[in-house]
Amino acid sequence: MQQPPxxxxxxSCRQRLIMEPVRSEVILSVYIISFLIGxxxxxxxxxxxxxxxxxKPLPTDIxxxxxxxxxxxxxxxxxxxxxxxxxxxEWHLPSFLCSITSFTFFSTIYTSSLLLMAVxxxxxxxxxxxxxxxxxxxxxxxxxxxxxxWLISAxxxxxxxxxxxxxxxxxxxxxxCYENFxxxxxxVLLPVRLEFFFVLCLIPLLICVYCYMHCILIxxxxxxxxxxxxxxxxxMAMGTLAVFLICVLPYNFSHLLGYFMNESxxxxxxxxxxxxxxxxxxxxxxxxxxxxxxxxxxKSIFRKHVVTVPGLQKQxxxxx
Length: 320
Description:
The chain has ten helices and two strands, in the order ααααααααααββ. By secondary structure, the protein is mainly α.
């Protein structure tokens, strides 16, 4: 006996609720909390780094300034995502705003992970190779590195425009923003997401692990460094790695599973909420990572070691 159309519709709605574990009110709440905490803290970071850049910036200061700008761009477009969540995850704004929002939303996530990787590399060079670090103190190196990172993340996340606007892929009937992909869109999107997982997440994570673990081992091999400074170094390293493991890795892991499942997992909304909280955690990393917040070298994580070179002024050989 066949079910009446009404019963089929009710069953379909029930199945849809089961498959959609994330409620729009949960998403909206996380967005609001992240916005209220992240915006003032990142504006404070921007002010601190702006002062430092005008005086004598270190490579980490320039990289973390770019990380602050990335978080602020994310927070600027977050009200559009709030409106989307308040509308039951339906997109009632112009389609071009959907493209801009999606591009900014995802590219800033990957820009942050790549910049955190660059900071870990600079830290490692400063501790393991102080003479080499001294030669790389010119701001131009950090500026070029930041520009390359922005280009890499922007080039990868241009897939958001391609998926939504390419003549052979675009879907005009969708009432949602960058969701409910067609089979043609998934054939292009899923392999690209797999590449995202390896290039923009796994490789930066492994580099961060290598750099910070070696920094800790080197610092513990130096008896002149106090125990408190060593503990601060461990705290900074563990904090940065925690950002990757909690805020970045779960979302990118959904790309890996999605590729083998041949679909875009619905639960990836949960992982995106973790990535949203990253804007609240980054300022804490700024505090422990940058000389902009540590004017007294005795309080810095990696204490400045001063050497005297004939004919030159004293220069720091490792980052503060």
